[in-house]
Amino acid sequence: MRSITDIERLLKEYDLYLRMEKGMADNTREAYNADVVKLLDYLAQSGVALRDVTVDTLRYFIGELHDLGIAERSQARIVSGMRSFFRFLSLEDYVNPDPTALLESPKIGLHLPEVLTVEEINDMIAAIDPLKAEAQRDRAIMETLYGCGLRVSELVGLEISKIFAEEGYLVVRGKGNKERLVPMSEVSLQEIASYLRDRDMLDIKPDCRDILFLNRRGGKLTRMRIFQIVKSLAEAAGIRKNISPHTLRHSFATHLLEGGANLRAIQQMLGHESIATTQIYIHLDRSTLRSDILMFHPRNSHRR
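RESULT FIELD:
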């Protein structure tokens, strides 16, 4: 793995390449440099060396941008910056082949995200190999992603101390470092309770004692690992749709809405940015939010 000084030197050489060889304007050059830094931060967090980057690595990165709510136009610009950076690395004989050669740009315009049926989600959970040591963890992850409509970043940072099982809700820290209440289905609570027994057998790292979902070494899971789990389960279930963790969140919201749940309750539960506007004149207390959501929760169909 390259040292920080090597990375800094590489970034300086790339900046010179953009300025001298490509003749880019300052604003464009600064945007390209900033996008490269985002990618390098992601690689460092995921434990992937720059020389080992593949087109799948970059697709996972773009998938994370989508899950974080980055607009498709901005995603397309970042892809353009990545192509430029790896073209430079290829010219420097640092990477071969260029992993961006087969990388598609996000389509700009009207985009309807994929939606899974409840049956397809059940098929994905059923595809989890029961003999794997992480089987119960992965079931709990799937039920929490879908049954609570969480973002990937919210899932990997979810703390045990923020789960209130008796009351049936959790507190999650979302975008803008804002906390919100999320009602939990009985299925999610049961799967997490079963997973906690397995978790207790891990050698948990000191800084991860309150983190719910851990890897086999007792450390925090990465966003990329969650993408891999979801993708592999979709393939094992024979689902040919373009699936990401965000698909589960979108499917959950769609199922609630189709079932008749209050749109504003869904907005508040999912922490959508638009709730900043609706909060001016809407206030749902905990009991109202929980009853509104659970009445139409796809995992609580017996309540209807």
